[in-house]
């Protein structure tokens, strides 16, 4: 039985396919369309899934959409009426879109796909919960879903057992931790629904000066983690602006202009909202453990991508272990919806072994054959060398300080590159973070990079006692690997802290000695594991830098063409396309195109 799950029309559209309950593929539309956070119907993603599995649309038994548009429309209408006449212009803009397309999702799916079979719908947070629990390794666990908003829900929790999901509690719009974080994303000058991770990365540079203001003026947090926002300060229910004049007066400033220099106040705001999110998430997790008595917790929803908060829940030992859906945002809800149909609607059994999840390492996207790659290179007369021992060759190049675009295996599902579509470098080099940020990624210099570490070496390098395969846990660099700062270095503030060497792996050590860890196992890591293993043999260090293979404003690369284009537009030294090694020094000059420049400017 083939079930297709679809997520679209908000942000980060995606499609996922399961066959007889097994996950066979999942991919975001942006990877094909090359439009970052593409929210359009995932036509290209669906076409790839069917083609890759030798299926036609007639081979699908069910298609399921990740939320219920009718309920969402009712919430939007009730919000507009509650705030009328405020937001009337936004109301008149929204109605034609809903009346012309979004309310008629069944007809739209049939038209886009040419599909005549049965179409199902799951509630938004049912999709999140299913995406959190059903692929997890646990036979039973608690679950917590936290995001901006689904239909009405912004947070839900409950228990999963076998093929059942039992919801115990929920919070409703407009009281939303995800939207509150987005408010501060906007206020500090970043783009909502894409810049939240920048706020998380900026937070360690600041001081929590505004925590009390947030907790006393903007929200009322209860002991169980539930809260109410003081809506006198916000405009997001009717979509005019995220905030109003009263919010600006509270903090004595206006939103930072995008691309304007970051100030101390921006850093303090980022730190303050990050501390508040961690505080609320810890309270929620504690309440859930007391309420359910479960040993394990599964997380999904956009807020579950806040790996700092995840790490804090783990360190507080509220649960024996956590499992976070690697595509925790709305893209992952396409997969969650498909699994919800299989287990919750159709009642099929679920198996788990307590150790391994069913995500296949999140390597669920396209892989290109060597013959196709060679044909592409030969047709364009791109100079290359072929190596059977690519891991040995590239480990040596990394040790010499080269930056490599690493394109091997199936593309990852979710926002993180996990060693298939990655840019990699030597984590031991002091200048590598700045070089990769400014000359490769073309992004803000403060942004940290993640370490990829051999799973068996995690405890020797990080304060973490378990795997972190999806880069969704933050841990401290092991104390014995840290380097103490001098008194003068400790007195520095903000970006001045950036270039201080804090550990043996300075390029992946954030200013607070933390790192967003990705563990790489022999079982799922394949060629990427063997590369790091070879690097360790040459250098004694089992840690390398891993950042996503893209530049600012562009989705992670999907095809060999995408990879070569990105490689040539940056100052990477080498590109690996499976067993083909491309040396930048041997390439013809690249003629840039206006489409890429526009994408960069629009980010």
**What proportion of the residues form beta strands (DSSP E)?**
15-25%
Q: What is the number of independent domains?
A: 3
Low-confidence stretches: 599-603
CATH architecture descriptor name of the largest domain: Alpha-Beta Complex
Query: What is the CATH topology of the largest domain?
Result: DHBP synthase
* Relative helix content: 25-40%
**Oligomerization:** single chain
Roughly what is the average pLDDT, rounded to an integer?
A: 93
Helical region count? 21
Instruction: Give the overall form.
Output: globular
Mind telling me the CATH superfamily name of the largest domain? Answer: Carbamoyltransferase, C-terminal domain
Q: Kindly report the spatial arrangement of strands forming the biggest sheet.
A: 13-21-20-14-15-19-16-18-17
Instruction: Name the CATH class of the largest domain.
Output: Alpha Beta
Reported for the largest beta sheet, the result is: 9 strands, mixed
Could you name the key traits of this structure?
single chain; 603 residues; alpha/beta; Nucleotidyltransferase, domain 5; DHBP synthase; 3 domains; nine-stranded mixed sheet; five-stranded mixed sheet; disordered C terminus
